[in-house]
Amino acid sequence: MSSQPDPRAPAAAGSPRGKALETLLNLHHDVPFTAALLTYRVRDSDRDVPLLVHRMSREHVQHGLDYFIPASPDFRWVIDHRDEVLDWNSVPSFRETVTAREVLLEAGYTQGSSFAFHGTEGIIGTFHLNVSHTENLSAAELGALYDASVALEGVVRAANAAARAGLTDREVEVLHHLARGRSNQEIADELYVARRTVATHVESILAKLGVANRVQAVVTAIALGLVDADLA
Question: For the HTH luxR-type domain, which residue ranges apply (predicted)?
């Protein structure tokens, strides 16, 4: 059973959502965006799930999940140009589409960009960003978007891995502390919870990853892309 995070809830440090939020905060310095949506695709499904939502209404998110991502010819065009960083003006006739006219422009979004992340099994997630100016994105902004997309692709892969293992955001956060060699008491002090609560998280992590001890859990987490190797 997969564990799907609440895309609007506070992000646990070290979790895929926490890393996504950190990446978006850094990106905002170079590209002052007004709304963003990051999704990952549920395994063995063509359905995307929101991983992080920033100032985007439920109606707009639902339009993206129900139509734009799975069915829009314009997003298919983006998928087919996977090696390019594109703004709206780069997608032929995009401003004339239903998504642009009846959803984005109505909400005051006049420029933006979308990405599709690819894995061996196909699309593994997407990223959509809206800004409020009408000019083409500058070369510097496109470069910053590319750098952010590389980081977010790793985040999406980690989210997929966590979902397949059934790990919660908090369990991924505890895994990061385990990778740093911290004891249950040290983790409890860091997270402001009881030591027994941490022990319960660790027991759950071992069971979900199918391993016998903390070292094996960290090794498995690194192999799955849940934890950076340089933490261990």
Answer: 160-225
- Polymer length in residues for the chain: 232
Q: Could you say which of 3.40.50.720, 3.90.226.10, 3.40.1190.20, 3.30.450.40 is the CATH number of the domain covering 16-165?
A: 3.30.450.40
Could you tell me the CA-to-CA distances from 174 to 42, 94, 205 in Å, in that order?
23, 43, 9
**Cα dihedral 79, 165, 8, 10 in deg (nearest 10):** -130
CB under 8 Å to 34, separation ≥6 — which residues? 55, 108, 109, 130, 131, 132
| Domain locations in the chain as residue ranges | 16-165, 169-231
Token digits for 100?
A: 């642009």
| DSSP-derived secondary structure letter, 106 | G
d(CA 2, CA 176) in angstroms, rounded, equals: 20
Q: Report the CATH fold assignment for 169-231.
A: Arc Repressor Mutant, subunit A (1.10.10)
pTM for this entry = 0.86
